[in-house]
Amino acid sequence: ETGVTQTPRHLVMGMTNKKSLKCEQHLGHNAMYWYKQSAKKPLELMFVYNFKEQTENNSVPSRFSPECPNSSHLFLHLHTLQPEDSALYLCASSPTGSSGAFFGQGTRLTVV
Amino acid sequence: DQQVKQNSPSLSVQEGRISILNCDYTNSMFDYFLWYKKYPAEGPTFLISISSIKDKNEDGRFTVFLNKSAKHLSLHIVPSQPGDSAVYFCAARGPGSARQLTFGSGTQLTVLP
Which of A31, B7, B72, B80 could join B111 via S-S bond, C-beta 3.0 to 4.6 A? Predict the structure, then answer.
């Protein structure tokens, strides 16, 4: 248990659906991240939030929409996804400026 | 182009022997390197790290070596145990104001009993 909780753990959605992934941490960290892990590929950083402000968007398609209402919660809103978006989506948090990150268990997303 | 590369997707080692996992990077501005371990159905967990000003860091059975001139780091696990079987990710920090981590694609380590 790393202190970063993601829900749901598994999600199957159709290409026309709208769903949201949730991430929660009560570690007092100020930075939160969304990563995508596709099979046999490196973890890809998608979004970075520092003190609730988005500081990085690594050319992520607009069908992925992050939201950070406070420093403890991070959402990833999904709409009109494609099958190639099927992957493990990992949330992480860290103290600002820290070298390491604590990861959640991930949401295994399947787009059908 | 991948800035952090783990060229071996898998490695099998006998229990009790040494496991050596390798990682190469291309960006000389990286200033901190980390190894994460990932079990199936779990997120990566931090294992060990090393600053770019050092060439070795040891923590129990785990030692990370950094060769800056070769832009290469390695993780040594000795003795290897079956519970070490997992995917190991190498990560590098920076450069840039966000100090983000760039990950390799991972190496699946299997320790055979």
Answer: B80
Neighbour count for residue B100 (Cβ, 10 Å): 21
Please list every residue in chain B whose beta carbon sits closer than 8 Å to the beta carbon of residue A103.
36, 43-45
The residue with greater pLDDT, A99 or B56, is: B56
Nearest to A45 among B46, B49, B100 (CB): B100
Q: Do A99 and B49 touch (CB under 8 A)?
A: yes
Output the pLDDT for position B6: 94
DSSP state letters, chain A: --SEEEE-SEEEE-TT-EEEEEEEE-S--SEEEEEEE-TTS--EEEEEEETTEEEEE-S--TTEEEEEEETTEEEEEEES--GGG-EEEEEEEE-TT-S--EE---EEEEE-
As a whole number, mean pLDDT of residues B55-68 equals 97
The whole-angstrom separation of Cα A66 and Cα A90 is 13
Contact A23, A91 (CB under 8 A): yes
What digits encode the pLDDT tens for the residues A58-84? Answer: 789 999 999 999 989 999 999 999 999
User: Mean pLDDT lowest for which of A18-22, B57-61, B98-102, B104-108?
Assistant: B98-102
Give the gap in angstroms from C-alpha A80 to the nearest C-alpha of chain B.
Answer: 25
The predicted-structure confidence for B23-49, as pLDDT tens digits, reads as follows 999 999 898 999 999 998 788 989 999
Nearest-neighbour CA in chain B from A4: distance (Å): 9
